Amino acid sequence: MSCTMTRPCDVHWLCREAGRFFPRQWQRYREGGGNSGDLVTACGKLLSAHPIPLSGNARPGTGATGRTRPAPWKEGRAPGERFTGPRFRMIFARLCAHYFSHAAWLPDGQQLLRDARRLAGIPGVMIHGRFGVQGPADVPWLLHQAWPGSELHLVGTGHQGGEEMTAHVMAALSHFART
Q1: DSSP assignment, residue 86?
Q2: Beta strands, E only, the chain
């Protein structure tokens, strides 16, 4: 699980900075998607021009997101099974590139934070891996601060979660099922 607001600074982090944690994989991703420095645009063009994954270097959906997915302390951990299928990778990568390149059609980078107060009275539980490279923990923290009555659980995992995250998800689901 991960929380993003698709603010320009979030997209910048994911598409220009997060690769600092996985330099070898990041270099391969850049080589597969073009070295323009604007990986969102390069990836969008690449994905719209080719209906199938292009090569091992440009494996859509395992680039900016999937290749940062393994927890830093578990180098080489394989992405989840759903990310191994070429069709899923292509669809996922196209969706991410499309939303990122259009700033999620939000007029400015602060709209979600600014309007989160409107969710007051609507219960919400955010469960986020503290060590998720592609979704830093400050994103759900800021949203939690702006959303009156929300709950936030930062767990000691990465993006893909684990037992601690699952326990919080199950507890939240049980709570909502009772209400």
Answers
A1: H
A2: 125-129, 151-155
In this structure, are 125 and 96 located in the same domain? no
- Is 111 within 8 Å of 88 (Cβ atoms)? no
Per-residue tens of pLDDT for the chain, all 179 residues: 678 898 988 888 888 888 888 888 788 777 765 555 667 777 767 666 655 544 444 444 444 444 443 344 455 556 667 777 888 888 888 888 888 888 889 988 899 999 999 999 999 999 999 998 888 999 999 999 999 999 999 999 888 788 999 999 999 999 999 98
- Domain of residue 156 covers 111-178
Nearest one of 96, 83, 77, 94 to 134, comparing CA atoms: 96
pTM: 0.75
Total domain count, the chain: 2
Alpha-carbon gap, residue 29 to 146, rounded angstroms = 35
Residues 67 and 98 grouped into a single domain: yes
How many angstroms separate the CA atoms of 39 and 25, rounded?
14
> Does one domain contain both 66 and 146?
no
